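#struct-help
A.M.: can someone run this one for me? Single chain, 100 residues.
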Amino acid sequence: MCLMVMRRSMSEAIYGVLEYENARQFLEYVKEKFVESKKAETGSLITNFTNMQYDGNGNVCEQIMKMIDVVSKLKPLDVLISDSFLVHLALNSLPSQFGN
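D.P.: on it. Structure tokens below:
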């Protein structure tokens, strides 16, 4: 019954073409995919964070706020960035004209 309700409430693209015998199997499949997605998101955010460079557009405060935003997105993914590391990367993201 639960499986039928889930199948009717989501599109075929989400549910997929795979057949499941019960709701538990389907939920286990979704859980596995979520973990893979979480790892990909974590990797993408870390890469984005470590490669951020100030390009001269906008002001420095906006650059730092973007970096803080990425750090806040990493927290729920169990990746903690210390304030001192954030400051270090923020200073390194600035061009030499800022005297870092």
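A.M.: thanks! Residues 2-98 form one domain.
D.P.: also worth noting: The mean pLDDT is 83.
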